[in-house]
Amino acid sequence: MMKLRSVGIIGTGKYVPERVLTNAELETMVETNDEWIVSRTGIRERHIAAPNQATSDLAYEAAVQALKSAGLAAEDLELIIVATVTPDMTFPSTACILQEKLGAKKAAAFDLSAACSGFVYSLATAKGFIQTGMYNNALIIGADALSRITDYTDRNTCVLFGDGAGAVVVGEVPEGRGFLSFDLGAEGAGGELLKLEGGGSRCPASEETVRDGKHFIYMNGREVFKFAVRVMGTATEEVLRKAGKDKSEIDLFVPHQANIRIIQSAMQRLDLPEEKCVINVDKYANTSAASIPLALVEAVEEGRVKEGDTLLLVGFGGGLTWGASVLVW
Ligand code: UT7
Question: Is the pTM of this model over 0.85?
Fold first, then answer.
């Protein structure tokens, strides 16, 4: 039988746009207040893309750093996957736009749509390609500019989202290192709870769709919250079981940054102290596919990840979807 290669992360990068939107500023835009936002979500500020910055521009900045830290030239890249729900345009894919910007001429390129779970779904996809030898490396980017699809007159959603990008290079690593397990899942029945209807083939863009706000995110926050707490629990248990690890062996927990209360409920279930959990929802809010890589890369940059550490990544989002992974750094 063919021996499968071990696959892990060999380079990291991240980018957030300069412009910061604070809770105080949101107070001047909708009927909300800093106390409500902080106590219900943990968010204090978020970064917003400049008018001339699209998702591929955010992705590019993170990608350049990740390639540099992996010591890999763009020409040697073999695969690019961009996880996003805010592509530059319907097609070509943001990954193809990025391929051209990077000069990654040899690389196959495609986008992956799994909302906030997209980064973990993309890691699993890349692992499959690399462990079987079809490709030797891949650039995986979670990038979203949710500000472009957020209704800044809707207080239920506009306080929650931000823009950013996180990137990793994935390649072969020594045996015993890298991704040990994945748990991916979907509950299409809950798709109605979190969606953007306008502009697709069922509801093409028209004056009416614009008037009805169908080009903005719609979310039933309470129901998504319940789903999130449930699957953060079940997915972490399942992915630990598949990896043959106990929750006490987790050195760093890297959850999707949507709401501090959802993160805290997962930490309780895993008996994890705060120093073993990455939390940056206060600075960046929910950046969708960028959220987990932004948290991971920030932890790496802060020196919180050592060789041999066991990490657990877990996210949930539109679809509905979830994705979790256990990896050894
Ligand atoms: O990446 C995955 C995507 N989404 C998520 O993870 C979101 C999951 N859901 C959540 O994080 C929470 O449900 C929210 C933060 C969205 C809402 O928190 P909640 O504790 O579930 O609040 P709620 O929806 O039960 O609303 C409580 C009250 C409502 O007023 P009434 O109906 O009780 O009078 C809202 O109208 O808070 C009101 N409210 C606000 N008040 C001030 C909602 N948004 C705001 C706001 N400022 N921005």
Answer: yes
